[in-house]
Specification:
By secondary structure, this protein is of the alpha/beta class. The protein is built from 35 helices and 26 strands. Its cofactor is pyridoxal 5'-phosphate.
Length: 965
């Protein structure tokens, strides 16, 4: 028999990556299409996506590359970066990530593919890790309540300003910022202050609060400790004076320095903010890094962002959960105190585990070593006749070199070291965990001094430390056993594995969350982020050292612009909420530049995600809610009435497309035209872009601005609740108002745009290679096919579940977009079974729940994505159908309403081995689905009592005695 010849070109091409990214193969797609009632993906697309918005032309993107080709291209880009030893400081420092954390957290899909812990029973591992992080922050800052991380130090400081204004005694007045704060922090604070009418005054507070400022009233003060210059100052007098004026005081503090220095809490501060980057998280050209905030007890219930608390489960045993969730933006909307709806969970876990790995003694030893190098560096400079500006410092030395700063910095660069040019006369030199004798010698050589590293021994014998005795820390911290128990790598490895096993992530099974797009985060996409050429770059390194990274950034911006139909993209916003804010600030600046500052009304449909309204208020706008029709569309009559009513003050309409209800609205182009005719702009929330890529472009069907979620549509993993990237994309007329950055002008438009929205010029640049790789691997055809299969998957699930649960919203032909909403309310009314009961019962079946009660209370929103294969989709559908049968058994009275598998779910292994008083069997409780006994996921706790946790707020590691009890 003759074997058919396969052409060499086809053999060389191999299996395209898209075939591995997209779960259902051709045969599975055919079966799904038959269920939905269409003959092809193109036929389904033509029926589901309104013709008025469909793109006629294909995306102009490079042809899809293989994994080996894409990785080779990324290697070439990485090779164009120069990883010098950066001693720039300014909140970014070299650090050594313990390999056990690098391999078993950052590179482990059990950690990086997890979702936000809204289902706490299956999130106990990452919640414990976050509680560790909160404990580290609370202990080191001396303030008892810390959050589960914020986006970076600059935005944390801006959140502290908003908190101070909200809770303080002074209703008006200014926000006073010390001139020695990090320059990027000052500018982020200014960006955030201006739209809300807050005046920021920057002054040298070394001599106290200026009298003329005190007379005007001060509602808040921000101090840096140690300062950007490196100076370690005793802030007690300034803090005391600020309190006399009724101000709330925030201190931006270095966590490593706080292992040696008196805590901000002991200095009298009310709030502490900062970054945990130097706790084992690579610089990554600026991010992602976990910012932090801690507060006095009185402000605990006003913290922005997320807070992990200790509650109890149905057995009365301690269990972790997100506390105070009523503060979340989807509930408070325009009354929200912040638009932060995510955290930097993966990075907070790394930082917390760095503290677990080293313990308090190890952290203090790293701090002492870092300080010692700085002290010896200063001593060597002084010995050579160089003036060192400050006598007291921790890790950063400022040298005065009249007129020579540029010359010395250039000599240092030639020796492989980056210094900070503060101005023509001053240089900043920061030591860190990675500093060694060679770096000291290189710096001395750049100053023209004796560069013999052997000098260090002599200097060490004669040089005292440079920390003031009055500020040395004398209290204990990190006393909980978790920070003392895991000194060996064996113990640490098992601890990380134990926590991972308590969680449910994408490496276990499907996470069908509507609005969240939990899709494949391919290993080939993830691999480059740990390469030192990407991970080791300082965000303020000279541009010529980041040529490869800057090329990657430009290419990603251009490709995202092509996909969305916009003209320009900024990658700076490091969360979707920040992309929203940046887009609205651009709209606001555009109207003001056109002489129409009175355009301040933001129209928002009632179904919109809550961050839309929160972001609008932060951008200085007034929210006017537009009704949503019974079919899930924006109520066109109400919209047009409100456009007419606010015609002269209309700034922008914010709308999600496809709608938050999971349907393609037919008249979106007409809606955009009506807003434009009234002089407004159109903001299309890009949260649901996974239904549009390759099929339609917001920038072409009428939108002016969108934010994108790279952690959804473009494959950056959710990481347990962060990191995220939320680029903002705009049409040309809004491009001058994109974010800029004071230390990297190339990161934004000429003139600086609206100012920085994040601390780093390109935000969370360290994870941008993931999305670059996704686009390079998929190509235009693969991206279009992925979108089509995502829409097919949602319609397949909807059709299979429709006989058992009503599908609440559909478009023409009964079709949905990339997600569907099923209505549980009739079942709840008839049987008492709630969406919570279904969500918890799905755990027993081996699934994470869909999105609960959003956008409509009492519903479940399901998004299968393109990455789940047909067997997994069927397994989920069969689980939901089986749960429907269980609900019927409650409805008929076979099982009591207060004692049935749904109300008691989830069921733990321990529960099954004890007494069994229930009217259903142990097998029905634990093994409701066939075939999963060997691979059964066992939840570590029973259902958690959230209300108890909110009433009894415990947000750091409880005493061991509590667990024994």
């Amino acid at each position: 028999m003759t074997v058919p010849r396969t052409p060499l070109t086809e053999l060389e091409r191999g299996t395209p990556f898209a075939a591995r990214h997209i779960g259902p193969d051709a045969a599975a797609q055919a079966k799904m299409l038959a269920q939905v009632g269409y003959g092809s993906l193109d036929e389904l697309t033509a029926a589901a996506v309104p013709e008025a918005i469909r793109s006629a032309e294909a995306l102009r993107l490079p042809d899809a590359a293989s994994e080996s080709e894409a990785l080779a291209e990324l290697r070439a880009l990485a090779g164009r970066n120069q990883v010098a030893h950066s001693m720039i400081g300014l909140g970014y420092h070299g650090t050594f990530t313990p390999p056990v954390i690098l391999r078993n957290v950052l590179e482990n899909p059990a950690w990086y593919t997890a979702y936000t812990p809204y289902q706490p029973e299956i999130s106990q591992g990452r919640l414990e890790a976050l509680l560790n992080f909160q404990t580290v922050v609370a202990d080191l800052t001396g303030l008892p309540t810390a959050g589960a991380s914020l986006l970076d130090e600059g935005t944390a400081a801006a959140e502290a300003m908003a908190l101070a204004r909200r809770v303080g005694k002074v209703r008006d007045g200014v926000f006073l910022v010390d001139a020695d704060c990090l320059p990027q922090t000052i500018e982020v604070v200014r960006t955030r202050a201006e739209p809300t009418g807050v005046e920021v005054v920057v002054a040298d507070l070394d001599a106290g609060v200026p009298a003329e400022v005190a007379e005007r009233g001060v509602f808040g003060v921000l101090l840096q400790y140690p300062g950007a210059s490196g100076a370690v100052r005793d802030h007690r007098a300034v803090i005391e004076r600020a309190h006399e004026l009724g101000a709330v005081v925030a201190v931006a503090a270095d966590l490593l320095a706080l292992t040696l220095l008196t805590s901000p809490g002991d200095l009298g501060a009310d709030i502490a903010v900062g970054s945990s980057q130097r706790f084992g998280v690579p610089m990554g050209f600026g991010g992602p890094h976990a910012g932090y905030m801690s507060v006095r007890d009185a402000y605990a219930r006003s913290l922005p962002g997320r807070l992990v608390g200790v509650s109890r489960d149905a057995e009365g045993r301690p269990a972790y959960r997100l506390a105070l969730q009523t503060r979340e933006q989807h509930i408070r909307r325009e009354k929200a105190t912040s638009n932060i709806c995510t955290a930097q969970v993966l990075l907070a876990v790394m930082a917390g585990m760095y503290a677990v790995h080293h313990g308090p003694d190890g952290l203090a030893a790293i701090a002492r070593r870092t300080h010692r190098y700085a002290a010896l560096l200063a001593a060597g400079l002084r010995a050579g006749g160089v003036e060192v500006v400050h006598d007291a410092f921790f890790d950063t030395v400022t040298a005065r070199v009249p007129g020579r700063a540029a010359e010395i910095a250039e000599a240092a660069r030639a020796a492989g070291v980056n210094l900070r040019e503060t101005d023509a006369d001053h240089l900043g030199i920061a030591c860190d965990e990675t500093t060694g004798r060679a770096q000291l010698a290189a710096v001395w050589g750049a100053f023209g001094l004796d560069a013999d590293a052997a000098r260090i021994e002599g200097l060490d014998a004669e040089t005292p430390d440079a920390l003031p005795a009055t500020l040395l820390r004398d209290d204990e911290y990190l006393t909980h056993p978790v920070f003392h128990r895991h000194r060996s790598e064996t113990s640490m490895l098992r601890y990380l594995r134990r926590l991972a096993d308590r969680d449910y992530a994408l490496d276990r099974g499907m996470i069908p969350l509507g609005s969240c797009t939990m899709k494949l985060n391919a290993t080939a996409e993830m691999e480059p982020i740990t390469w030192p050429e990407f991970a080791g770059l300082h965000p303020f390194a000279p541009a010529e050292q980041a040529e490869g990274f800057l090329t990657l950034i430009r290419e990603l911006e251009d490709r995202l612009a092509e996909i969305t139909g916009y003209d320009r993209v900024s990658l700076q916003p490091n969360a979707g909420s920040q992309g929203e804010l940046a887009g609205l600030l651009a709209v606001r600046a555009y109207h003001r530049a056109n002489g129409e500052p009175g355009r301040t009304v933001c129209l928002i449909p009632s179904s919109a995600h809550g961050t839309n309204a929160a972001s609008a208020v932060m951008a200085g706008m007034r929210v006017v809610v537009v009704a949503t029709g019974e079919n899930g569309d924006v109520d066109a009559v109400d919209l047009r009435a409100k456009i007419d009513r606010h015609r002269d003050e209309l700034a922008v309409l914010m709308v999600t497309y496809p709608s938050t209800h999971g349907v393609f609205e037919e008249d979106i182009a007409a809606i955009c035209a009506a807003v434009h005719e009234a002089g407004g702009q159109v903001y299309v929330d890009g949260a649901n872009l996974n239904a549009l890529v390759g099929l339609a472009r917001p920038g072409h069907f009428g939108a002016d601005v969108s934010h994108l979620n790279l952690h959804k549509t473009f494959c950056i993993p959710h990481g347990g609740g962060g990191p995220g990237v939320g680029p903002v994309a705009v049409r040309a007329h809004l491009a001058p108002y994109l974010p800029g950055h004071p230390l990297q002008p190339a990161a934004g438009p000429e003139g600086g745009g609206i100012g920085p929205i994040a601390a780093a010029p390109w935000g969370s640049a360290g994870i941008l290679p993931i999305s670059w790789a996704y686009l390079r691997l998929m190509g235009a055809d693969g991206l279009r096919r992925a979108t089509q299969v995502a829409v097919l998957g949602a319609n397949y699930v909807a059709k299979r579940l429709e006989p058992h649960y009503p599908v609440l919203y559909t478009g023409p032909g009964g079709l949905v977009a990339h997600e569907c909403v099923i209505d549980v309310r009739p079942l709840t009314k008839a049987t008492g079974v709630t969406v919570d009961d279904i969500a918890k019962r799905l755990i027993d079946y081996g699934f994470h729940a869909p999105t609960m009660s959003f956008p409509v209370a009492g519903t479940l929103m399901i998004e299968p994505t393109e990455s789940e294969d047909l067997p997994e989709l069927d397994r989920f559908c069969e689980a939901m159908i089986a749960i429907r049968a269980e609900i019927d058994r409650v409805g008929t009275g076979e099982w009591p309403k207060d004692d049935n598998p749904l109300r008691n779910a989830p069921h733990t292994a321990e529960q099954l081995t004890g007494d069994w008083p229930h009217p259903y069997s142990r097998a029905e409780a634990a093994f409701p689905a066939d075939g999963d006994r060997q691979d059964k996921y066992w939840p570590p706790v029973r259902r958690i009592d959230g209300a108890f946790g909110d009433r009894n707020l415990v947000c750091s590691c409880p005493p061991v005695a509590d667990y024994a009890g």
